[in-house]
Amino acid sequence: MASRYIGGGDSTGLGTTIRFGVSRVSTVLTKAMFPLRLAGTSDPMTGFFLVDRSRLDLDRLRPQGFKILLEILARTDLRKAEVPMAFGERRHGTSKATFRQGATFLAHLTRLRFGKMSGFALIGLFGALVNLGIIWALTSMGVGYIWAAIVGAEVTIIGNFLLQERFVFHDMRDRAAGLRVRFLSSFTFNNVEAALRIPLLALMVETWHLPVVLAAALSLVAAFLARFLFHALVVYRPRRGEPRADTATQRVIRAIDEQAMRPGEL
Predict the structure, then answer these.
(1) Residue 249: per-residue pLDDT
(2) pLDDT class for 187, splitting at 50, 70, 90?
(3) Which has the least CB within 10 A, 1, 183, 213, 228?
(4) Is 251 exposed, middle or buried (0-12, 13-18, 19+ CB in 10 A)?
């Protein structure tokens, strides 16, 4: 890897103080997210590197934007070596470093660190905020809070499914069951989960004597993990004839490893 940030390297070609600052902050953030895999790597976002393609599993690489080296370093255990590079001033063309590319980089970094679970969690958080907004709006118009909660929950469940289809499990749809089956499975499970969560909360408070806030937090974490595993293992499981693990235990382990914690450093 050719690095701007080791002895003999030069980054003055970045030009402005802002570009230099963005580059350094991005590097520090990336190394903080992958302290083990990027140990000894000073410039993980460099575009100047050499790698033996025969050592790579190309099917596992899913880069976003143009930070290909980061994808390789995060998903492999290759030995690394750096040489200094003088990053010269731009002579032709324009920079690809736009705000949109910055957002793509952050999304890619999050996906690499936490896999599909991060997107699933963000959609769940967004859905919770929408749910609260619907309840507030309906109760302000005089609708009873029970009916407002039911409407909010159903709208959120449907909206979350559509967002998960588009942004979380899009790469698994072709091998899974049809859209109608996926939706009905997701819709049914989420409604059952919502109906069971309140009794679980009451059990933890009344029987186990846990504080309400702690019990609510535990119930939400359990619900989140249950929803994620159900979608990864059931809703989007491969159809018959597609490669899959032999047992339920193997499917759970593979889902956590491949979808939730890939590349599994934390």
Answers:
(1) 52
(2) very high
(3) 213
(4) middle
**Chain centroid to CA 172:** 15
Q: How far apart are CA 165 and CA 201, in angstroms?
A: 29
Paired with 3 in beta bridges are 84
Specify whether the backbone of 94 is left (phi greater than 0), alpha (psi in -120 to 50) or beta. Answer: beta
Omega of the bond leading into 243 within 30 degrees of 0 (cis): no
Q: Where are the beta strands (DSSP E) in the chain?
A: 2-3, 83-84
**18 touches 94 (CB < 8 A):** no
| Tens-digit pLDDT profile for residues 200-215 | 877 888 888 888 767 7
Within 8 A by CB and 6+ apart from 251, the residues are 233, 237, 244, 245
- 76: alpha, beta or left, given left = phi > 0 and alpha = psi -120 to 50? beta
Q: What are phi and psi of 57, to 5 degrees?
A: -95, 95
Structural contact between residues 134 and 152, judged by C-beta atoms closer than 8 angstroms = yes
Round to whole Å and give the CA distance between 36 and 230. 31
- Measure the CA–CA gap between 70 and 44, rounded to whole angstroms: 6
pTM of the model: 0.56
* pLDDT tier for residue 258 given thresholds of 50, 70 and 90: low
User: What b-and-e string marks burial along 94-128, b requiring 16 or more CB atoms within 10 Å of the CB?
Assistant: eeeeeeeeeeebebbbebbbbbbbbbbebbbeebe
